[in-house]
Automatic annotation (TrEMBL), chains A, B, C, D, E, F:
<keyword id="KW-0808">Transferase</keyword>
<keyword id="KW-0028">Amino-acid biosynthesis</keyword>
<dbReference type="InterPro" id="IPR042122">
    <property type="entry name" value="Ser_AcTrfase_N_sf"/>
</dbReference>
<dbReference type="Pfam" id="PF00132">
    <property type="entry name" value="Hexapep"/>
</dbReference>
<dbReference type="InterPro" id="IPR001451">
    <property type="entry name" value="Hexapep"/>
</dbReference>
<dbReference type="InterPro" id="IPR045304">
    <property type="entry name" value="LbH_SAT"/>
</dbReference>
<comment type="similarity">
    <text>Belongs to the transferase hexapeptide repeat family.</text>
</comment>
<protein>
    <recommendedName>
        <fullName>serine O-acetyltransferase</fullName>
        <ecNumber>2.3.1.30</ecNumber>
    </recommendedName>
</protein>
<keyword id="KW-0012">Acyltransferase</keyword>
<dbReference type="InterPro" id="IPR053376">
    <property type="entry name" value="Serine_acetyltransferase"/>
</dbReference>
<dbReference type="InterPro" id="IPR011004">
    <property type="entry name" value="Trimer_LpxA-like_sf"/>
</dbReference>
Amino acid sequence: MSKLRPSLELVVPVPVGTWGLDGVVKSLRQSREETHNIRYRGQIRELPSREALQRILDGLSAALFPTHYGQPVLTDESIDYFVGDKLNTALNDLAEQVRRGLLFVSRQGDEDDAQPVVKSGHDASDLDREAIEITRNFASQLRHIRDVLVTDLQAAYHGDPAAHSVSEILVCYPGMTAIIYHRFAHALHNLGAPFLARLISRIAHSGTGIDIHPGAEIGSSFFIDHGTGVVIGETAVIGNRVRLYQAVTLGAKRFPADESGSLIKGNPRHPIVEDDVVIYAGATVLGRITIGKGTTIGGGVWLTHSVAADSNITQAQSRNI
Amino acid sequence: MSKLRPSLELVVPVPVGTWGLDGVVKSLRQSREETHNIRYRGQIRELPSREALQRILDGLSAALFPTHYGQPVLTDESIDYFVGDKLNTALNDLAEQVRRGLLFVSRQGDEDDAQPVVKSGHDASDLDREAIEITRNFASQLRHIRDVLVTDLQAAYHGDPAAHSVSEILVCYPGMTAIIYHRFAHALHNLGAPFLARLISRIAHSGTGIDIHPGAEIGSSFFIDHGTGVVIGETAVIGNRVRLYQAVTLGAKRFPADESGSLIKGNPRHPIVEDDVVIYAGATVLGRITIGKGTTIGGGVWLTHSVAADSNITQAQSRNI
Amino acid sequence: MSKLRPSLELVVPVPVGTWGLDGVVKSLRQSREETHNIRYRGQIRELPSREALQRILDGLSAALFPTHYGQPVLTDESIDYFVGDKLNTALNDLAEQVRRGLLFVSRQGDEDDAQPVVKSGHDASDLDREAIEITRNFASQLRHIRDVLVTDLQAAYHGDPAAHSVSEILVCYPGMTAIIYHRFAHALHNLGAPFLARLISRIAHSGTGIDIHPGAEIGSSFFIDHGTGVVIGETAVIGNRVRLYQAVTLGAKRFPADESGSLIKGNPRHPIVEDDVVIYAGATVLGRITIGKGTTIGGGVWLTHSVAADSNITQAQSRNI
Amino acid sequence: MSKLRPSLELVVPVPVGTWGLDGVVKSLRQSREETHNIRYRGQIRELPSREALQRILDGLSAALFPTHYGQPVLTDESIDYFVGDKLNTALNDLAEQVRRGLLFVSRQGDEDDAQPVVKSGHDASDLDREAIEITRNFASQLRHIRDVLVTDLQAAYHGDPAAHSVSEILVCYPGMTAIIYHRFAHALHNLGAPFLARLISRIAHSGTGIDIHPGAEIGSSFFIDHGTGVVIGETAVIGNRVRLYQAVTLGAKRFPADESGSLIKGNPRHPIVEDDVVIYAGATVLGRITIGKGTTIGGGVWLTHSVAADSNITQAQSRNI
Amino acid sequence: MSKLRPSLELVVPVPVGTWGLDGVVKSLRQSREETHNIRYRGQIRELPSREALQRILDGLSAALFPTHYGQPVLTDESIDYFVGDKLNTALNDLAEQVRRGLLFVSRQGDEDDAQPVVKSGHDASDLDREAIEITRNFASQLRHIRDVLVTDLQAAYHGDPAAHSVSEILVCYPGMTAIIYHRFAHALHNLGAPFLARLISRIAHSGTGIDIHPGAEIGSSFFIDHGTGVVIGETAVIGNRVRLYQAVTLGAKRFPADESGSLIKGNPRHPIVEDDVVIYAGATVLGRITIGKGTTIGGGVWLTHSVAADSNITQAQSRNI
Amino acid sequence: MSKLRPSLELVVPVPVGTWGLDGVVKSLRQSREETHNIRYRGQIRELPSREALQRILDGLSAALFPTHYGQPVLTDESIDYFVGDKLNTALNDLAEQVRRGLLFVSRQGDEDDAQPVVKSGHDASDLDREAIEITRNFASQLRHIRDVLVTDLQAAYHGDPAAHSVSEILVCYPGMTAIIYHRFAHALHNLGAPFLARLISRIAHSGTGIDIHPGAEIGSSFFIDHGTGVVIGETAVIGNRVRLYQAVTLGAKRFPADESGSLIKGNPRHPIVEDDVVIYAGATVLGRITIGKGTTIGGGVWLTHSVAADSNITQAQSRNI
């Protein structure tokens, strides 16, 4: 073995410097003051915590699929205690995050200065009551969410020749994680917790490369394979038994502005995808168009108009030069 | 400085609600019972642990590249102790994860109810013996794996004008992480631990955006630049000195079903890419076709037929409207 | 409830095997020795730590946006203490990481054996001094960096109809994270800390799917929506008010080699994108071309030639078969 | 402010030395081999884990006193789920630790070589069955344990003029922690898990300075104030309503050896303390003597003979020199 | 080397048992209900958190002695930012813990059922205001606390021949930790936060073996050497320049009960120790007696009467039998 | 079940206050400046880290007793790799802590201002060399330390009738922890690293209640039972086969001061305890006296004069009043 190291040697140390701290601190204070128009000027608001939300998502996943996302050693006598306690902890924590998120709602007719505000007429105990109500409604939907997720799981097993077991899908498929998180996020979005729902979709995006806006409506038996780069927009509507591959975009074609130049927010601008559609890798489908039932869209296709049921759309061919 | 806060103010607290826990717990139990056909009804099986596997991958990487992935201060007298202990810990832990994974193997001819089962004829001590045998064989391949990874490292250094050192590649290039993990996963896949191999590829995918199925055969001096969105399918075969860019798909064209409507699993359905091929960003290559030696495939190309050696394939031109 | 578990049952245990450790350790030592030409033969060098750098980035983000990335309960009397202490800790730690990174600089005219070396003429105290100088200069740019980031934040708010508040953008938008990290990385790159800058871009890429080389010049009011798969090359130049969508590549067309076959490193090879350009999802723009002011490039476009100001480039149409 | 630091200075770095590792490793191996007579020569045995046991103790404490040692926000609908899940986790983990501990039982008639062995006639599944049986019996005693602990709690409240609430006692009194842990340990000791019980007493000792052997029998309404240095021996018997102060020893007077010179283990050798006895700080009570009902023993007393009921024992007076 | 292990062997696994959970949960619920008289029946109260308090104590210690308990690399420009931010965080967190503690105050004239209650006339915003007021007053005393602690530090240096530096005392002497924590606790006790003060003394006791009630008045230049087993009672009064050794008790002699049999709480019952007294190891001093200025009390002395100034008290001699 | 909680309720929130931070920070700065005479005015010195030292002690313990303090699953092929790597890590880290400790050495003849200083004639590379030399010598003593610890282990097994196995002693006996740490500390003390040795004894004291100064000389087959409150002074000398019980003090009788009033440091002032002595609980032995071979000293004895070999010393009797 060659000599790796001599027997006595110095590792060069960390230097100790001065950074002009007073000046930097002062200049940053000035920057904050000059951009006060994008800073909020009201009561103290705590942002929802991404770490807390991750724990909540883990807890909800464990409550829905206890042996796969919870713990393997659960017996007949213990499983309901496990599920009940996981739910209780997750829902308590969720209520607090929902409450925080309710403080971050945009002021209508006031987009020019980007000032989010508390919904008018809300005081603290209203907020508490609203957060609890949203969370209780969310809890009551969990059984339905689980039932639909089971159809997604079956769709993945039947839709991928490389899938060997449902356990493999639950544990190894980013598309499964993405749809579980989306179904949680979508329920919260509809119940009036859009900020929190958005943060859930951010967490899913970061871990899977799949970016589904919580507003998107997605039917049962939904399957995304591989998934990196998939984008599904806020007003997209997707039917049952739809299958997507990596890098598929269901996006908006253009963003109309109002007379003041501000973007008009919230209008339907993403595709409607009917039942039994398959969209292959890299296809881009834009605008409020309808993809008819049973259609297949080939990889890399660029599509901005509606197509009839049972269509088969492919890309222009490449050429050999 | 403007008034940021008054001197005494309340942060609104977490609300305490009731969630109808008994009802939710009961409904989830019903949902589990109604979907019992996708639940496993046998002995207790612990799933391989993603956290444990991440530690094992870190340990194996440290054993192969001690000063880059292990610790910088290693001397001639200490390096073999370090490597030996890292290996021993990683291999002990790997044996346990392999054992767990062996319990998740699909039942042949029984895809209709998605029931994974223990391989017939396997009892606990058979499983132990098999897990140990797989792990011991894996250990004996580590030197070969390291040798091939060194060719990948050199390919990255020579293939990217932005690369300034091998250290930069080992530390900063997602493609390097992806190929290290793939070479571990592929060895385990071939040795009979497909579930575990799949979970390794999931970990790599999550951290790099690169999704390589463990079944894919990849030659030496392989380099993926940037890498986000790359997908390489289960039966793909890639030669030596191949270079891929981000969002390249080597996928299947279609998924033939048997007469019962179930997908036929395992047949060759992904491309064969011969030596010295370069495939640029966003190209999609589908089906059991052959890309001849030395071919260049341009970015965004959609390709579903074989091409001869030394071809140069480009996309149809865009137009200015 | 059906019987989940019998009352007494064994979980199969971890097997204890032997791995032929002596042989594997010896073979890995041989592999290290045989590939010594890619191993560094000098003083001990500690690599910059990804974990330390993540903490530094968190600290700098908190110093720039204290209530969003720091802590919500900051008062007039406490905010400057918070900012000052976060800065001091982050800058002390940064100086150490910069120092480490300075040891990994490639030897000019010596690419054939991939040997990174210490810059000639540098001894330990020179390195300390240089690291401190770089860090102090970096500190003095923080106010400017914050001012530009505020324009990026406003661009996101005004550019995405789904954005409801600046808080949502700061917390939920991967594009915001990517540009914050890039502006830190670019400053360090220009100040002479390229290795460290590269590691920052790797961290950003891993968390967002957006891969921006630290060398890229990017103007103010920059916005990337969704972002997965975006790649921006080392020598790209981007003007003000530019908007990109997911999977856009601003890449190099070809990599010229010198007469010895080695790639020529560092020459301008990525696009110049002028002010007010919008590039939609999946577009690939390659080579040292210029995209004129105000141009719109459609999704999926493949572009390798310059276009005039106010152009509108779209992809060839797909066809219905 | 005086000059704390110059602006540029080196922190002296960690030295890199060589330690003669091969020689030290070899000498330690020789030491292990030469002292093989105190090393166990049988199957692999995992020691009970102190960290796991601490978690188990936390879990059991939370199950018994959910709002003080568990979590404050428990509602009527959630508290039983919480208790049930805490119990299930703690009991599952306890069974494993009990199983480990069962492997460490001394071989009768073989004290000369200090060789602990597996109880004869025990194979692995016997051990499992025994560990489960012990744990199930332990579970069935938890209600009784809680009831007695409530009497201890009341004794502390009524016995210390400085105690202002039961919450203060549960949270701030080392004596309360010691008696909770002892009652768990004593139950396990009696059920046949002495090693594990001993480890629990070690944990209690480390955190409170109170050292109670798990074998000691202690009646209800027991209170130790301050507690540092209290030692209660293996065969001590303590009645109801007994109060001890810091540094009280209830120890053995002498340790008789058998003819071979080995200590005779297990015979009664510690005091019997009857009901309603108070023993003040620093008193030392040794041997199998009886302290009659209602007796008060003064601080610092040294006592090696029995005393009648209602005695009042004090130390010889100090003198002023 | 002898054979440590055969090459293939089983580690016995964790057994899976059933615990009769439903029964245990039910019995514990019954136990809680039957002992409802020691359970609190009011609003939800969160107990002060020992972990939070430990962090607060670390923060306050760092603010007072920044280079010893904070971080070594502090410069003239950074030290005040460090101190200010540590203080702000610690004081914010302290206010919350003080608020929690205020809810645990015993109901006067109601000791018979051990029911702690909220102070009458307190609602939530009163509590907030009181917690903030206590914390602000505490902050204003920190400079004084530091000044006194410096006299303690000097007393330790001059009082122990084994002490080689003040750094050694700050880092290695349990007596120093105990007095720092006591001075914090005493200030809070006097300001009206007795529960929190008590929890601080519990933390100090657990880490040092020294148990000082927060109510004790202790003068400057105080030094405890070794310290294990020292107990100082609630109403003790200690002058300046007093030195104690391990296992010294300054306790109460008896606890008078009122006519109902309840202990009378709060009356003076511990010794007054005047200036310049030294008390050696194991001495026990009980009751509201006065130890005159300059007195020396020998090790192991048992003392229940006052002694004049400059006395020299020693224990009765041992005898050789 | 009684109503634990209503269904909607507020938890009172953390208040937000202002603390007069500027004033407190300024006053603390003044306090630091006024007490500058006990502050060090030289180069930056990092204190040895208690956390790092705990890790080092864990590593050394694992290297000496691999299956008890390391990991249970070690095979013939892996145990030396484990020991070697544990040692290397622990010794590297120890060298750094030794180096730090060397900076804290008191200035001779300068006790009046409590100024510790760097030993004269030491510059940074001298320090490195000295730290490495001390650590290398320490490494060479490890085999001897292990051999002696094995005699201590046997003494515990033979000395305590409650001990059932050597594993129980290694895992559950605080006296064993104390003597292991002391033998490490004593070796470092003798090699010239007194500050570090002192910190090790502090760690042992905190976890066991046993306070042994690193300077104390202790022979083989040493056993401390229970141990809380044991204090052994700096210049104590203890023979072979000595047994101590809890609360035994081997201390100094008086501390002579020099003419300036400063304590004389370092002179012999603690007892010499010859072979085969037993000292029972609570005995206090003070001054440079000699306890003759084979002597037994009873519990609670106060002894300040030498006693001949084979003496039997007991306390004056208590009396019944």
